[in-house]
Amino acid sequence: MSDNCLFCKISKGEIPSDKLYEDDEIFVFRDIAPQAPVHFLVIPKKHISGPSALAPQDEQLIGRMMRVGNEVAKREGVEQYRVVFNNGEQAGQTVFHIHMHIFGGRSMTWPPG
Ligand code: AMP
């Protein structure tokens, strides 16, 4: 837990969220400002500020996040989806607790803006 981290507080239930999945390591909830019909966030409960702060011991955790995200996407009725990790302000990161966005339910354009 990092003091004043929004996503640490959400994963501990201190701030309400629309939870889709939880286990010992991972918490999944709907994005509050969805950018697609299905848009949810997969986070580790462990505080990691972003992709560039990942350590070798986090590799398995990130793999689990992808597998859990895929299962939740299926449950939400999307087999095709986009996965985004923003790393740093210039890339659009606004919450500095690593999170995997999963977007689905509409066609996507490429490249992203
Ligand atoms: P990023 O811009 O990649 O850091 O993404 C942060 C995401 O968190 C944005 O898509 C926000 O809409 C989302 N967000 C911020 N606050 C909340 C919240 N309280 N509950 C759910 N999603 C949130």
Q: What's the short version?
A:
This protein is α+β, with helices and mostly antiparallel strands and 113 residues long. It is 20% helix and 22% strand.
List the keywords.
single chain, 113 residues, alpha+beta, HIT family, subunit A, five-stranded antiparallel beta sheet, 2 helices, 20% helix, 22% strand, globular, binds adenosine monophosphate
Q: How far is the N terminus from the C terminus?
A: 32 Å
Bound ligands, each once: adenosine monophosphate
Number of strands: 5
**How large a portion of the residues is in β-strands, by DSSP E?**
15-25%
Give a written overview of the molecule.
This protein has 113 residues and is α+β, with helices and mostly antiparallel strands. The chain has a single domain, classed as HIT family, subunit A. 20% of the residues lie in helices and 22% in strands. It has a 5-stranded antiparallel β-sheet, with helices on one face. Strand 1 (19-22) and strand 2 form a beta hairpin. Bound molecules: adenosine monophosphate. Residues 6, 17, 29, 31-33, 86, 92-95 line the site of adenosine monophosphate.
Task: Write the topology of this structure.
Blueprint (H helix, E strand, L loop, with lengths): L5 H6 L7 E4 L3 E5 L7 E7 L14 H17 L5 E4 L15 E5 L9
The chain binds adenosine monophosphate.
